[in-house]
Request: fold
Amino acid sequence: MRSQSFLEKCFWYILASIWTLVALFPIWVLFSGTFSKDTNNVTQTYFPNSISNGIEKVSEALSTINIGQATIDTFIYTTVTIVGLLIISSLAAYEFSFFNFPGKKVLFSLVMISMMMPMILYVIPLYRMVYHMGLSDTVLGVSLPLMVSALSVFIMMQFLEGLPISIIESARIDGAGHFRIFVKIVLPLMRNGILTTTVLMFMKTWGQYLWPSLVTAQKIRPISVVIANMLAPNFWVDSRVKLAAMLVAMLPPMLVYLLFQRYVIEGVTMSSVKG
Amino acid sequence: MRSKKNPVKKEKNLKFQKYLVNYLGLLPFFVLFVVFVLYPFFYGIVMSFTDWSVSSRGNVNFVGLENYKYVLSGVGTSSVRFLASLKNLLIYVPLTLLIGLTLSLVLALILSQIKRGYSFFRGAWFAPYVLPLFICAGIWQWFMTTNTGLVASFFAKLGIGVGVDWSSTAIYAIFLVIFIDVWNSVGFNFVMISAGMKDISPELYEAAELDGASTIQKMRYITIPMLEPILFVVITYGFVSALQVYDIPWILSGTGDYNNIGGPGQCMLFPVMEMVRNIYLGANSGLGRATAEGVILMIFIMLITLVQFKVRKKRY
Amino acid sequence: MKRLKRVACVVLAIAVSLAMLTGCSGSGSSLAASGSGSGSAGSAIRTSGGAAKAGDNGSSDGGYDLVFWVYSDAVLNDQGKLFKQWADDFCAENDDVNSITFVGKDDADLLTSLMAGVGLPDMFFASARDCMKYEQAIDLLDLSTIYDNDTKGSFYANTMDAVTANDGMWAVPFMSYVPIIFRNLDVMKAAGIDASEQLDDWDTFFNECQKVKDAGYDATTSWATGGYYAPGAVLACDAENLTVGVKDGKTTVDPSQCERTFETIQKLETYSNGMSYSDDAAAEAFKTNKLAFLLAGPWNEPDYVQAGVNYDIQLVPPYEKGGWTGGLQGWDFMYGVNTGDPGRNDAIVRWLQKMASYDVQKTFAQVIGRSVLREDVMNDPDVMQTNMLKVLSTGLNNGMMQMEFGHSNVFWASAIGDVAPSVATGKITSADGAKAFVDSVNGLYAEAGE
Reply:
C-alpha cells in the first residue's frame, strides 16, 4: 500500500486511542473505585487516591465474602472441566476431521444443534439426574455437564483442517494403530488448538452461573454464585468490597488472557476460517 | 469360489473394524453429550406438553398443546409478557448485530492502517470480552445513571436522553443493553474480521486505486465480499447469542421481585428472562409454560440459522 | 512492550496467589457451623434416608448432621457468628445432633432446587412471600407443637395466621422489615430545616423537599422507578382504606382506593433527582451530602454509619398526623422439611423452636439491629435501644404486608412497579394509573389461577 502522510497517521492513531479508552476505561474504573477513600463518591471515582483503603477492601472481600475460597473452588472445577473437555473434544475432532463413516453427518449436525440449546431449557431435569447419580455438590458433578462443548470440537477441527490426511495414512502403513496415531502424531500437531480451546473455555467456564449455582451447596463455592449472592437485594455489602471482590474474580481470566493472548486471538481467527 | 469370497468378507470386516474404532473415538464425547445434554433436553421438551409446576410434586398431566396456545395467545399476563419480550428481541437482535458488526468493521479498518503498536491495540480492544458480563453490567449502570453518570451526561450534552432514566424507559432500555453487549463482544468480532482483512491481497486494492475507486467503493466491492465467509460466521454466532440475551438485562432490571423483571412496561424484557420468571412464579403449569417458551425460542434460533445457511448456499 | 506484558503477568500472578492464600485462612471459620471433621463426611446434601440412617446406626459420635439453608448474609460477619454460636449451643444441649451446617442460598436458588425436587436441606430460612409455594411443593414439617397458646400470643397476630394452613403450622416467623426514609441532617441544616421536626405527614415531607430544592440540593430519588419498593411504600400509607383480598379471581381493591397513592408518587417526582432508590449513585449522593432524603431498607444503615453521615430515620409518613404510616412489610420465615425420619424431624423441630424463642429473637434484634416478628421482643424496652428498632417497631404496627403471606402465591402489590413510572412521567393520569394497577393485579391472579 502507499505510504501514509504524517497527518493521516495521526488521524488513525487518534481514532485507535479513542476506542482504546472506551474499551479500557470501565476496567480502569474497577481499579480506581476499589483503591479510593470511603468518602469519595464511588460511582464517580476515576483516579485511585487511597491504596491502603483498597488493600483493606480486598482483604475484606477475601476473608468475609470468602472470595479466596471461591476462587480456589472455581479454579479446581474449571481445571477439571477443561482437562475432560480437551480429551473428549480432541478425540471427536480427530474422528470428524480425518475419517468418513456411516452416520457422520447426523452425528455432526447433532453437535451443531447442541450449540443452539438454551441451558435453562434442560437445567432442571439435568440437575435431577446429576443428583440421583450422587454427584451433586461434587467437582465431578459441576464439571461433567460443562465438558460437553460443541464449540471446542469446532475450534480443534479448524486446527486439523490444514493437515493432510497422508500423514495418517503413512503412519498407518508403518503399522501404528488408530489411537496411537492420535496420541503420537495428531495431538502434538494440535498443540495450538488445544491451547486456544483451553483459554477460551477457561473464560467461559469461569463465568458460568446457572449450572454451578444449582448443583453446588456447602462443599463447593463457585465464584459467580458468591458474587451474585453479594449483589442480592435486602442485604448490604460495602460497595468497595463488592468492587474488590469483582476485581479478584476478574483476575484469573484476565491473567490467562494476557499470558496466552496470542493463542486466544489465533483461536478466534481459526474458528472463523471455515464458516 | 472360496478364494473369491474371502477377500470381500475380509474387506467388510476390515471396514467395520475401521468404523468401530472411529465410533470408539467419538464415544466419550457422545456418551456425555447424550447423558448430560440430549436426554435432559428431550425431557424438557416433553415437559412443555404438561402442566408441570413447582407445586405439582411429581403429579404431572399431559395437556397437549395447551401451553403453546396459551403462551402465543396474547391473553393473560405471562403471555402478554412473552410476546412483549419477543417484540423487544425483534428490535434488539438486528440492532445489536448491525451496530456490533459496523463497529467491528470500522475497528478492523482502523487497525489495518496502523503499523506500530498493532498488537497493543488489538490486545486492548479484546480485553472487554474477558470481563464477566455481570461486572460489565454493574459498571455501565454507574455510567448510565441519570444526570450524574459519565456516559449518560455525555449523551445528554448531545441532546440524547436528557433526564431519561435509561434502564426504565422504553427503547432507551434496549439501547442500554445494546451498548453493553456491543462494548463487551466487539473485541471478539473485530479480531476475527481483522484477521480476515489481513488475508486480502494488497494487489486488489492497488488495482482498484488505479481504476480510481473511492475508499467506500473499495470497502463495498473488495473488502466486504472477501470477508464474506468470516462475516457469515460472526453473524451466525451473533444471532445465536443475541437471541439468548439474558445476563445484562436481568442485572439491570433486577429488583428482587419476579413480577418486575424486565423493567416497567416490559421495556427490557427478553424471552429467556420471561422463562425464568415463569419457572419461579409457582403458577399452575409454570414450568410447562417456561419450557414451551424455550422450545419456541429454539425453533426461532434454528430457523434463522437454517435460513442463513440456505441463503448462503444459493448465493455461492 | 513484551517486557511490560511479562512484568504485568508476574504481578498479576503474585496477586492471585496471595489472594488464594489469604482466602484460605479466612474461609473455614464463617461457613461451617460445627468444627467436627466427622460431621462433614458423607455425601453432598443430606435430606433423608441414607445419610440419616448412617447417624442412627450409632457410629461413635452418633447424631444427626443437619443442614440449614440461610440467606447469604447469615453466614457472614456478626450474623454468621451469632448463628454459629446458637448452633454450637444447640449441639451441646442435644446429644442427637452432631452438627448444623449453614449454607448461603437465596430465594431463587432455593426455588430452583425445589422444582428439581431433590437435594433439599433439613431446614431453610427464606422469604414469607414464597410460603404457600413451599407448602405446595415440599413436604414441610408441621411445627404446631412449637406453638402453645403462650407462644402464639407473643408473635404478631397476622404472622400466626400466615403460617397456619390445612390444620398445620408450617413456619417460624423470624425477621421483618419496612421501607424507611433516611434523612441527611447536614443537608437539612443547610436548607434551614429543623432536624428535630419529625415526618408527621406527607405535607411536612413535601415542605422539607421544597426547602431542600430551594437551597439547591437534590431532595429525593424517584419514587416510581426501581420496582415495587418505593411506590409500594406509598401505597401502604393507605392500607387502612384498601380492601385487600381476592374474590372470584379478581382483587377486591378498588381503583379509587389507590388514586391518592399515584397522586403522591406524581408529586414526589417533582423533587426527584431521576435516580431510582436502589441505584448505587443514589446512596453515594446521600453519603456525600448531595441528597437529602433516601428511601432504603434497614439493611442499608451500616453503609451510612461507615461513611460517617449525619442522619436520622423516619417512617414513610401518613396522610394525616397520627395516621397510618406507610411501608410494605416484608417477612422472612424459617421452615423445616419432613425428612421421613421421626428422630431427625424431632431434632429439626427443636432447632426451630429455639429459633422461635424469645431469647434468640431478642438477641438477633439487639445484635443485628433488625426487627423480628415476635411482638413481645419488639415491645421490650430493653431491646428498643436503637433509633432504628424503635422506628421499625412502630412501622410493624402500620403499613401492610406485601401480600397475603401463606395464603396466596400472588405478590399483588408488586404490580405497582409496572404502572408507577408512567404516572410519574405524566404519560397517564393518576386515575388511569389506578385502573391500570388494578387490571394488572387481576392479571397476576388469573395467571396464578387464584
